[in-house]
Batch of 2 targets.
Target 1
Amino acid sequence: MAVLQMQKLTICAMKKDRKAVLELLQKMGTVECIPDLEGSEVFRRMDTTSQRMQFEKNFSLAEQALEVLDQYDPVKSSLFASLAGKELIEADDLSQVVAQVGAIMTKVRELLALQRKISDARSLIQKKEAAIEGLKPWAALDVPMKCQGTVHTALLYGTLGPEYTQAMIEGALRERLPEIKTVEAEILSADKDQVCLAVVCMKKDAAAVEEALRAEGFARRLSVSERTPAQRIAKRKEEIREIEKEISELESQIHAMAPMREDFRRVSDYFRIRSEKYRVLGDLIQSKQTFIISGYIMKRDAARTVDRLNSRFDLMAEVTEIPEDEDAPVQLANNGFSRNWEGILESYGLPHKGEIDPTFIMSLCYVFLFGLMLSDAAYGLIMAVACFIVLKKFPRMGEGMHKSLTMFMWCGVSTVFWGLMFGGFFGDMLKVVANVFFGVQNEATLAFLGGDWALWFVPLNDPMTMLMWSLLFGVIHLFLGLGLKGYSLLKEGKTMDALCDVGLWYLFLLGLLGLLLPSELFASIAGWQEVTFPAWVNPLSLAFIAVGGLGILFFSARDNKNFGLRIALGAYDIYGVTSWLSDVLSYSRLLALGLATGVIAQVVNSMGSMFGSSVVGAVLFIIIFIIGHSLNLAINLLGAYVHTNRLQYVEFFGKFYEGGGRPFDPFRENTKYVDIKEEKLS
Amino acid sequence: MTMGTFYALLGAAIAVMLAGAGSAMGVGIAGQAAAGVMSEKPELFAKVLIMQLLPGTQGIYGLLVGFIALSQIGVIGGGAGEMSVATGLMYCAACLPIGLVGLISGVYQGKTSAASIGILAKKPDQFGKAMLFPAMVETYAILALLISVLSVTGIR
């Protein structure tokens, strides 16, 4: 439970060692470089933008090539492939790739060129197909379209509106050109858009015929092709076949490059690492012979890093404390259990400067509340076992994923615990199965199986009790939060603040609780027997309220000089007790979500058992059971996750935690596909 | 069956219908936003799906109250006896909070989820905080659920 102490490392080294020093730092990954070092007359910065652009272009080319490979030569990847994590390789493996980086990049470009050729060919095919579509209506024409007729006759081709029939066309021609007898129109094809026709007439009449047809909406079609439309279609089809052959040729070339996949990945990572190195290179300042690099380092790494630097190079490395006003990055360190909740904390915000790291306490509360909300032993068991198996099966999965799964595994364990406490095992599955399939009729046995085996009590039968316990857990959680505020104030040495802002509130709230619990009002709400406390509790509570309330009234705005204003602000602070009320009531969701899991599980069970105890009934029961409980588990898992987070973020953190720290992001080998084994220390 | 039983059934139906309708609308609204984000950033699928599901709980709360009411009335599990009109109306009243609040909070939680999905589209790392905004709306559905459950189980 701590924020690791950061220090500042400044290195001044010879320029000839520049590359080697940076590479060592990158390999160790312990230093976050500060980008805004101020330059001077002697020390200048180097502009590395163009090199970085080059590297970035290279790795994005490699990425594109990988995408193409995935497209043409997909690797069968299971659902869990993303859990497998990065491959671990020897440093030598990477240097082998680096030795032939030029050759690999050539291959990358070749691959991309192949891909371009394929897409060009594809668009060519599309063009040809469009041409075929355009020719199809004319396929019945058995002369080339270039043919305009014979010595004495003229041939016209063209289209009319879709409504024309042979008879209509002939009728229209007769009507418009009664004097011309020698004209013949033939419909070649008709579809819903147009009618294609060929018209033969004497050459001298051609102009008149065309004129007459145009009046009907005739659009003449001209072409210079010397082949018949059918021939042209056949030729284009032949061409398409050839292009397709070419494409499959190209594709097989791409397939042949599939074994390069690993190399492409490594090259991509190599350029990523170099690009990162040049980013830092651009940040440091250099004179003619030397350069200076400065950055944050965790205290626990400082000595080791400096030793390694000194053992290899002639340089000056200095570790100093970080000045008060500087905003250092934050790195958390927790025990093996609690560190799995760092992700939850991080998504709210890391502790800002001087703030405590609440991960440890939060992790305990989280497990406790999560289990309460899901509270079904079977669901918890499924969660815990599933997470455990995945964790064992994929030991190299990404760190964030590993943490989340471990967290859910522990939450599953807690869910088992609360499930046993509250008598939930797939809801009331035991009772339903015993009743329907084994014919158990005994009321007492059924009641026992239906949840009475619970180690504590069954919330569904006794929701009021559960509500009271939920609120009590809420009060404890909130008091813990207030306690942490006191702890951090004391740690900063602000005793007065701890006393006024925390101590007085404890007194005040405890006093209120002491008065409320034994009251008749509370007993009637809770449906309990009146709680009787010993006689001294009542006066003590009153004293607590008096001291706490007056204390808050006078001291909560103690920095304010104006006495009237100070009292007014104090009174307003006392009004803040209403926010405590709403915070506590918010924990009623523990009851609501717990009930939701149990009741829906019951709905599933009773739906499944509707078909009786026959074989078919049993099969249907199993099907409904599996589907229903998977859905219920999924939706309630989500609910428990969201609302546990909410209780931590809003109610708990609201009491003491702000966040806003910047995560520590060291200069390291920022690879995507492989992890490189650390070299053995020489 | 008496009028009393009818009113009690009506109550259960109201709880399931209104809360379910609220969730359907809410999940629908959030789903449209989620689909939009997916078209640009498919890698956010898991996150936006969770966001889309957040307004789905109201329907479940409605179902929960409806189910408890049905088993109390005796429609499930048998033993549906005579019920006075007054008792029936009490069940009906007890089901109203989760029905109404479920409907309205479902729709608004859906809108808030859609907005939070917008946050994710631009800042995927802010998942934890983005999830809080819709969860805030849900509080009131939970409060209504609480009263409905306590009322339904309290009627004898």
Note: Chain B has a mean pLDDT of 89.
Target 2
Amino acid sequence: MAEIKLTDLTKSYGPTEVLHHVEGEIKDGEFIVIVGPSGCGKSTLLRMVAGLETVTSGEIAIAGRRVNELEPSARDIAMVFQNYALYPHMSVRENMAYGLKIRKLSKAEINKRVEEAADILEIRQYLDRKPRQLSGGQRQRVAMGRAIVRDPQVFLFDEPLSNLDAKLRVQMRLEIRKLQQRLGVTSIYVTHDQVEAMTLGDRLMVLNGGYVEQFGTPIELYDRPASVFVAGFIGSPAMNFIPAMVEGDTMVLSTQAKLPAISSYRGAALLGIRPEHLTPDENGPIAIDVDMVEQLGANTLLHGKLNGSDHEMVASVPGHVSTETGAQHRFSVASELLHLFDPATEKRLEA
Amino acid sequence: MVERRPLTSLLTHFVLVLGVIAIALPIWITFVAATHDQYRMNQVPLPLWPGTHLWDNLSQTLFGAGLSGTEGAPVWLMLFNSLAMALMISLGKIAISLLSAFAIVYFRFPFRMTCFWMIFITLMLPVEVRILPTFEVVANLGMLNSYWGLSIPLIASATATFMFRQVFLTVPDEMLESARIDGAGPMRFFWDILLPLSRTNIAALFVILFIFGWNQYLWPLLITTDTSMTTIVMSIKQMLEAAEQSPQWNIIMTTALLAMIPPIFVVISMQKLFVQGLTETDK
Amino acid sequence: MLKRVHFPSSPLPYLLVAPQLAITLVFFIWPASQAMYQSFLIEDAFGLGSEFVWFENFEVLWEDQHYLDAFWRTAIFSLLVAALSMGFALVLAGFAQRVVRGAMAYRTLLIWPYAVAPVLAGALWVFMFNPTLGIFPYFLDFVGIDWNHYLNGNQAMALVVMAAAWKQVAYNFLFYLAAMQSIPNSVIEAAAIDGAGPGRRFFNIILPLISPTTFFLLVINMVYAFFETFGIIHAVTQGGPGTSTTILVYKVFNDGFVGLDLGGSAAQSVVLMVLVIAMTVVQFRYVERKVEY
């Protein structure tokens, strides 16, 4: 059980800095998801915590102990890899026992731990098989089992579900969450999948281009995204962004669409509206000329252009909506659900 | 195959059988010659069908006087010498190549590239082109007429190092990362993970190198003057020379047969590994 | 070239490369540089001293008609060996890949010559073509050919070419078969739907698709014929009759060990080294396109 502290953490490859001054505190037993597009530095950050990448500057502390210079095996961590990294020539049992054997635990202790972990993960009947005789989901469990038997202070997950098919991914996602809650081990989980991130994490760290864009609970990220990037990354379909001009008491989106101002900010801004927050309203201020309709069953996505402008917009409407292309639909939106961003810095403009 | 016409199928097998006959003919003739007595082997035309003297010829060749008129070593000793040389070359080469490939792939150290290029350059220097000075080196080191002299100069070659390097590069990085998290040091990782993972490649390379070692000719010819160090492959040439005086083709061909059997046996019994090794070493 | 993660620095890697480096230095790099150095020396008639003469040994080679003849002979020899063994292997592989069941059996029956030492291959062929006893001269006599490779230079050349090509067929066959089997079946089927018969498919589809293999094998076979056929020549003809089968590798050996012309032999070695390096570079160009380092 341990808390993790990242202080002013920087990583460079030669002259190229790939992680910039990352700060963060992870509480004991917390499940943290690092999320971001590929190449944002999320895996690098995780691997630095694991000790597989060196730290250029700054400090990583696990349970109050500086670990920058420690070998991975000395950090009391366990890691689940994207491709599982099971040793193909060893049986499931040997795979799980290997780290314990190196730590010179007694045979009885090793067997006890391996079998306990196997029971938790329901892989006991596969203990004597080789990895290649297992399905993707079973391999995934073995990889987790290998992490569990070490009884570490920290679990590290590097996109562990991305090699599974969609259905299995949802199932394993739930299992990982349940397992973590049961064991109460501090965990860091890296993914590029925002749904996975939202469902798994106690808190999410959104990385973009080596910068931490926001670090908060899923609901904070959804309700109050700190930047255009976070706003666009979290939520599906993605948030609509419309350039707006705030003059006096009104925000002008286009010649037709005008909304009341929501903050004291005046001048050019970027207005964000989530598609699911657009409510059909015959007298609403926002008119969309629909050119494409996606029927998803539970809801309907209406794609089109904001009337009187070239801005693409999407509205998500509950239930079935029958419409034809070219038709105009009007919407209103509650002002507390609007997000305003600075067009230059792309940061959130607070009320 | 797309079509399945009896006629094309027949033609295909016909051509292949002809090919097999053409390829196998020299070996067949060798075998036939080893089954007749000396008298029959001096009559024209020579037989094309096996006779009944195989065991006589074998026992005379292996344990008897062998070819009369030559002061050679007994054939069993030559076979032993060949085996020793082939094993030393193949196992030695595999051992040093595994180690150096491991160092080059898994460590970063000063002069890494220098080492790499020094090994690489040997790819371009077959023994034939540096034969005289290499002979001098071996002579100065007092390694003439020894198993060391027979094998060590042929051990260092880049091909095996390159193959293992290729193999190691295809081992996923996560294997090492996972092993490090498990607390395995470099040599432990090498023994527990890397070696078991490359065992088919090692076996495949062994087949190739065993044949390479067994079939060495020019090098043993130069550095062995003592008849007790003669290898079986070398002895054939001496026998051919002797044959000009007293043709004992039955014995010569029995010896040739004995010289061919071990490498052919290795190739046929490990055919799958051999094919894999061949195509991977050269690519 | 190097793993993303590596072990922390320690003296260990030096220990690991030490055996190979030591052997390489002592038995490869040192002798090769000796060969270079000697190629610039001429020994006096009594072998007592030697004189540094720069490129004189090479100039002598360049003007030596025997050497130039050997050069051309080697070129012709290796081309003949490559053409014969590759052609034979190509035909066999072309038919073998059409066989559904039994392809492995044919492969097994075709690969053993690879395991036969060159000098043994030479011995087998010399036995089959022995002018007085051999089975082939006996049959050739019926069609009016008087075979004696001890006297007839062209026949001697033909014999070493056949022996050398025979040994290499197995190797070429394996590579051709592997290349043909790696062509997706759908391509062959598409051609069949387009109306191409087996022969047409072979020439229009298979042959162009395996051309990289052909090129690769050509280089390999040339290198083989240049260097690895020493044993065959030594067993079959000893370079004769006259010098009609003296190829470069044989001449290096002969001039150095038999003729004891160290400088001249060393110069020939250096020329050979340059040739090997050229061929290796060509080969690696090809390899690099296929394999990522």
Note: The first helix of chain C runs from residue 12 to 38.
